[in-house]
Amino acid sequence: AGSQWAWGFSPRQFFRLLEAAPPSEVVKNKDEYLVRQGEDIEKIHYLLEGRLAVELDGVVLNEIRLGPGGWAGEFWGPNYDWVDRKHKWRVSFRCLDRCITAGFTKRT
């Protein structure tokens, strides 16, 4: 079994992700929304600094912190239909502190 880095990928898997979808830095202040429920999914985010509240219809469901659970968004398999279908956020992610994320553009 290979080693897993903190973000849940092996080093080889993570470097492949960086090559396929180079991330951009996203900075938000406390109480700003990283994404809002119902918006189109353009990127998934990995939390580098701060904390995020996961909200559904304005109700806080969970908190995302740094480390293995630091993803705001989900990965889908190679057969997932990104091209012919719009995908919307089912929840909002609100910064509880100043937040910095690595934003990975969805596969097109």
Q: Beta-strand level of the residues, as a percent range? A: 35-45%
Regions with little confidence, pLDDT below 50 for 5+ residues:
none
Question: What strand order characterises the main sheet?
Answer: 1-8-3-6
Number of helices: 1
Radius of gyration: 14 Å
Summarize this, please?
The protein has 108 residues and is mostly beta strands.
Task: Characterize the structure shown.
This protein is mostly beta strands and 108 residues long. The protein is 9% helix and 36% strand. It is built from one helix and eight strands; from the N terminus they run H-E-E-E-E-E-E-E-E. A four-stranded antiparallel beta sheet has the order 1-8-3-6, with no helix packed on it. A hairpin with a 2-residue loop joins strand 4 and strand 5 (59-64). The longest helix is centred in the first third of the chain and has 10 residues, at 11-20. The mean pLDDT is 82.
Provide tags for this entry.
four-stranded antiparallel β-sheet; 108 residues; single chain; 36% strand; mainly beta
SSE topology:
Elements: H1 11-20, E1 24-28, E2 33-35, E3 43-49, E4 52-56, E5 59-64, E6 71-72, E7 92-95, E8 99-105
Antiparallel strand pairs: 1-8, 2-7, 3-6, 3-8, 4-5, 4-7
